[in-house]
């Protein structure tokens, strides 16, 4: 046998084969654009669009609220139409919305445009996850870990490019960065065009349902001697497609996920604000904490895939996740006391703990959200699960600012609350005693 090439080695390490690798490229390019725009959005709306701080707050709040509908809508459509063209369409919508921002400074029009963009962003997130789930199969958790690594590298590249461009400090630079964001979506659509359509249990089930036969001209009528159906025979049970909106366990699980996703708001809002307003640590430490988060995810997200290798492993991993949340909250509380060096050390410890929590939860969440969803309604279920992140982005800032206002006890309470939610979720996703997770039945009878 010949020596394996680097392409063969890469194919063995990345689940999903060629399509899996191409979707990683899509993810990487997409995140570069997100890094470009995320670093400059507020500056663009301030200096290029001329909006006030209050108007920018309204703009982001409204568009974020509209975006909450993106995951369930995208997931629902993905169970009914081919996934690849749907994902391409969403990416093109995002590109058009980004470019449309360049055409106006009117607040009303900007509200409409950013709302469409937010809807597309949230829908694209769940559709990309669904594509990865279908193409990677049983190796979906490892694929998710590799995908998150690609995301973080893309964010870093986009952020660094934006930082370099912003040294110019002109309005023209903000516009070009926005154009770069739009081009990343166009490139993502082109790369997606080269991917194959993944198998879908939902669409296969629909196609395989036999249609009722109708008599054709020339058919003979049934003879009088043919046995008539018995009145006492039970009528065949009719079932509807599984729906997450009637699955109370999945809805409860999704609600618990919205709480556990708070690590995102802690890192983006809570930790920076706390560091500069309540501790004696040097302000220069704040961007270094964000860099630490990025580096740790790139280095360790793939090894952390083992914590979600099976449904029961994911369930068991909720205990170390609870420990990471407790440690992070306690470290933030302690950072308000002591000399600058002590504040710096405890902030680094808190950043590390919440990054570990982020990586653990990403792995656990991916596995459980998929395994608890019926294969024939996977898109709809994952779309509902996507609401957890969308809701967290809306209410998370309120939760972490409340913790800051409460002082050290607020962070202790937040860490303890997140740990308690891990325990509650572990009980919710319990096993039946045979090693398999208990999943509530979702078939609905109609009489």
> How do the strands line up in the largest sheet?
1-2
Distance between the termini: 62 Å
Order of helices and strands: HHHHHHHHHHEHHHHHHHHE
Arithmetic mean of pLDDT: 82
Please count the beta strands (DSSP E, at least 2 residues each): 2
Give the biggest sheet: 2 strands, antiparallel
Judged by helices, strands and strand pairing, the structural class is mainly alpha
CA radius of gyration is: 25 Å
Give the overall silhouette.
globular
Number of helices: 18
Tell me what portion of residues adopts beta-strand conformation: under 5%
- The parts where pLDDT drops under 50 for at least 5 residues are 204-233, 432-436, 439-447
Helix content: over 70%
Describe, in short, the structure shown.
The chain is mainly α. It has 18 helices and two strands.
Write the layout of secondary structure elements.
Layout: H1 6-13, H2 17-38, H3 41-48, H4 53-67, H5 70-78, H6 83-100, H7 107-136, H8 140-165, H9 171-193, H10 201-208, E1 238-239, H11 248-260, H12 263-278, H13 285-300, H14 311-316, H15 318-334, H16 340-371, H17 378-406, H18 408-428, E2 445-446
Antiparallel strand pairs: 1-2
Helix pairs in contact: 2-7, 2-8, 2-9, 3-9, 4-7, 4-17, 5-7, 5-17, 6-7, 6-9, 7-17, 8-13, 8-16, 11-17, 11-18, 12-13, 12-16, 12-17, 13-16, 15-16, 15-18, 17-18
Structure, described:
With 447 residues, the chain is mainly alpha-helical. It is 71% helix and 1% strand. It has helices at residues 6-13, 17-38, 41-48, 53-67, 70-78, 83-100, 107-136, 140-165, 171-193, 201-208, 248-260, 263-278, 285-300, 311-316, 318-334, 340-371, 378-406, 408-428, and strands at 238-239, 445-446. The chain has a two-stranded antiparallel ribbon. The chain is globular.
């Amino acid at each position: 046998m010949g020596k394996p090439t680097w392409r063969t080695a890469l194919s063995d390490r990345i689940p999903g084969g060629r399509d899996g690798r191409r979707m990683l490229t899509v993810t990487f390019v997409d995140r570069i654009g997100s890094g470009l725009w995320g670093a400059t959005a507020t500056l663009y709306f301030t200096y290029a669009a001329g909006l006030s701080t209050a108007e920018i707050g309204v703009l982001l709040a409204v568009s974020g609220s509209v975006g909450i509908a993106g995951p369930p809508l995208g997931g629902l459509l993905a169970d009914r139409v081919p996934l690849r063209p749907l994902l391409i369409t969403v990416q093109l919508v995002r590109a058009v919305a980004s470019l449309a921002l360049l055409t106006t400074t009117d607040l009303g029009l900007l509200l409409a445009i950013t709302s469409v963009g937010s809807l597309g962003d949230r829908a694209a997130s769940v559709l990309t996850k669904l594509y990865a789930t279908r193409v990677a199969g049983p190796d979906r958790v490892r694929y998710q870990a590799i995908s998150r690594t690609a995301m973080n590298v893309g964010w870093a590249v986009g952020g660094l490019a934006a930082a370099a461009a912003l040294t110019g400090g002109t309005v023209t630079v903000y516009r070009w960065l926005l154009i770069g964001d739009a081009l990343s979506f166009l490139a993502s659509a082109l790369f997606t065009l080269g991917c194959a359509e993944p198998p879908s249990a939902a669409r296969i089930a629909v196609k395989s349902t036999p249609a009722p036969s109708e008599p054709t001209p020339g058919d003979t009528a049934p003879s009088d001697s043919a046995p008539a159906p018995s009145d006492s025979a039970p009528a065949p049970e009719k079932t509807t497609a599984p729906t997450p909106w009637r699955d109370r366990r999945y809805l409860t699980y999704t609600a618990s996920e919205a709480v556990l996703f708070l690590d995102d708001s802690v890192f983006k809002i809570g930790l920076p604000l706390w560091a500069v307003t309540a501790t004696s640590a040097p302000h220069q430490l704040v961007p270094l904490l964000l860099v630490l988060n990025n580096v740790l995810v790139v280095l360790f997200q793939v090894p952390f895939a083992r914590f979600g290798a099976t449904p029961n492993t994911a369930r068991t991993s909720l205990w170390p996740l609870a420990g990471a949340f407790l440690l992070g909250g306690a470290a933030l509380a302690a950072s308000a006391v002591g000399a600058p060096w002590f504040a710096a050390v405890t902030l680094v410890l808190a950043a590390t703990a919440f990054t570990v929590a982020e990586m653990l939860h990403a792995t656990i969440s991916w596995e459980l959200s998929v395994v608890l969803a019926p294969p024939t309604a996977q898109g709809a279920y994952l779309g509902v699960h996507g609401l957890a992140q969308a809701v967290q982005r809306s209410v998370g800032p309120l939760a972490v600012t409340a913790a800051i206002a409460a002082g050290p006890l607020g962070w202790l309470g937040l860490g303890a609350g997140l740990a308690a939610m891990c325990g509650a979720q572990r009980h919710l996703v319990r096993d039946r005693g045979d090693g398999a997770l208990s999943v509530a039945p979702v078939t609905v009878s109609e009489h």
